What we know:
Structural class of chain A: alpha/beta
Radius of gyration of chain B: 21 Å
Order of helices and strands of chain B: HHHHHHHHHHHHHHHH
Bound molecules: iron/sulfur cluster
Strand order of the largest sheet of chain A: 1-14-13-17-15-16
CATH topology of the domain at 19-25 and 125-353 in chain A: Rossmann fold
Distance between the termini of chain B: 46 Å
Oligomer: heterodimer
Amino acid sequence: MRRIHDFHGGIHPAEHKSDSMAQPIQPAGVPDVLVLPTGQHIGNSALPTVAPGQRVLGGEEIAEADGALSVPCHAPTSGTVLAVEDRPVPHPSGLSALCIVLQPDGRDEWAEPRPFANPMNADPLLLTQHIQQAGIAGMGGAGFPTAVKLSPRPGKPIQTLIINGTECEPYITADDSLMRERAAAVISGSLILAHVLGNPTVLLGIEDNKPEAIAALKDAATGSGVEIVVFPTKYPSGGEKQLIEILLGAQVPSGALPADIGVVCQNVGTAAAVHHAVVNGRPLVSRITTVTGEAVSRPGNYEVLLGTPIRHLLALAGYDASVNQRLVMGGPMMGFTVSDPDCPIIKTSNCLLLPTEAELPTPPPPQACIRCGLCAEACPASLLPQQLFWYSRGRDHERLEAHNLFDCIECGACAYVCPSHIPLVQYYRASKAEIIAQRQDAERAEHARQRFEARQERIERQAREKAERREARKRAAEAKATAATGDDKDSDPIQAAIERAQARKAALADAGSKD
Amino acid sequence: MALLRVTSPHAHGAQDTTQVMQSVLLATLPGVAVMTWFFGPGTLVNILFGSMVAVAMETVALALRRRPILRTLDDHSAVVTASLLCISLPPYSPWWLIVIGMGSAIWLAKHFYGGLGYNPFNPAMVGYVVLLISFPVQMTSWAPPRGTGAELPSFLEALRACFAPQTYDAVTMATALDVVKQNSGLTLEALWRESPQLGRWAGAGWEWVSLAFLAGGLWMLKKRLFTWHAPVGMLLSITLLSALFYDEGSSASKGSPLFHLLGGATLFGAFFIITDPVSSAVSNRGRLVYGALIGALVYIIRVAGNYPDAVAFAVLIMNFAAPFIDHYTQPRTYGHRVRPPT
Lengths: 515, 342
Ligand code: SF4
Ligand code: SF4
């Protein structure tokens, strides 16, 4: 048995997971329209390669990756491109972004699948490319392009691949159902990822509140070399840094990447997507999304085509708008509210939470911080949230940074326990944004300063050079004059200058008359 | 229903500051009940009148500071401060003593500094110390406990003591801490035999009051209203110091560890005063240090200082030191090898 380590803090919120686990994964079907944002991942948005009116097949690329930190988008089914335009997208900012709008034709005709032959003997670089071309980005919620994490970094070998099956947020069961029902795909994908990374140790971490998934995974992993590591349930054990600490007892240095200590983390959903892309030759066009909360009568896990409007899923799950108070994309701890049900499901949408007011009450007005320290006890990053709150209110950016604001993972554990209902995370987000903006300002100012100085320096240099040239000319003329008269003392510089000027004038007049 | 736009987290734990304060009030009940049993209804009258004064003063302060009144009163913190101060006052205190104490606690210690959460000093202890320094006679006149001969006043008499103090004939008696402190000639054994105010281990009645406050404190600990660090730090250091200097009861003895633990305001202070989060150190390690230093100060002032009990002074001194403790006990942030600088 591998030794399990604990991490500081953490909380045990009510799980509410059984609500959505009553049924197996159900297909959500094909909606009337699919809205596919070109930026469903972190990094550069993909560049559309289709035009309105164009017919596309399922699996066909409709937007190509823009550089290495980007992934393409594919059509989830056959149909016609209706528009390439800005539409509301699921994002905390509530903004719109470029989307490809597709009208499915109901025939679901597919482009030829392109499986990768014999992947376990293949060149890791080619496999990485294949994974990028399949449009795979982290499906646990962050949406970081998977291929980037797989790209080798010189001098930094990977010793451990961690497959994250923790799913520690309450309500969400998308990964749980995936592991129960498609454990073989998860293990197969994990092995492919391990091959790409040079066969490190593979650990699949999972909380002990998912006994069925654990059994299925152990079954599927027999003889594969993937070790299933079970540990006690505690939020946020699924945070990348926390999971690394649980499994390896090591911490990722502040500001560094897991790869810097020889670790790569991938979500179980990502592993399954890699399996589909490599073994079945299918790009990423669907995902499992949990739809749950007391405002839906049929909570469950749905296999959803990317681009499916939230509205479509709500109808399927028996949504009662009259009792719903907020529409949360993601879980109750880290999810964000969406105000437009026309927003689509994207690659990172693991959950739609539709609580009633009684279930997740509107927060009461915050009371004074009584410095009870519960927040510090709950913080998995061992920060002092109450101090950060204090400095955040005072806009004391220096202290905020000295107290490691940027090590806050925004898990919400502090705000969860705060008896005064202070929206702590909101303060941290705002302060982070302010500090980043200020840094950018400072950088811009620095650039401007450098530009200014360069210009100043150029002007000075030119002036200097001019002066030097003048000086040189003067010396040359004097030398000439000296040579002509043969005697320094007798020469009259004023006379000489007058003569030179007259000569020049004459020459100019001469030149002018020639024109 | 219009959809809410709020930021995460959306779920919230069960604790709530109002409930925390209510629980603290509830936790004082066993102690207050035992006090009433031993000393009569004086403390009850103190608390009832003191709470009304505190709420009125809090209302005035909030109005002057243009803060939401009802919403802030709802945090119950004024009543908690009032109760803690009134428990510390001698039973049958006159009304003006209570009013001055409340003014110092609510206005001077709390609102002058910006209200709940901003007060560097524990308001109840500020009130207590102001009174102790200004009115030492009234503040050290304790009623004799049940079982020492005197009759306990009735509720009516208690009201009279409070609101018409000039018509009330107070019967008072030196407290156990005084007796031991002033003792010079007797061995502890002899002293115990001679002094009715000494009980089984500490002050007569007092030891049971202390145990009742301990029960309330343990209940709060079980409800996780605070962590064990500060109380354990304080009780440990008092026990260690008093054990170190205990000489088995000669006339110069300063009292056994049990005497110091159960005597005076030790247990009340450990669970109800130094656990006030606002004015204490912040981190768990910091609170352990904070509690231990308070315990040490309590013992030192008790045996060497001019005042028989010392919890209030010790707490205020350490309130002052709390930011320094915080500075040296900051937790190490994830992924950092050293503690962050302040
Ligand atoms: S939990 Fe809330 S009230 Fe308690 S110290 Fe932290 S921020 Fe202050
Ligand atoms: S949100 Fe930040 S400060 Fe709050 S508990 Fe999580 S990591 Fe700590």
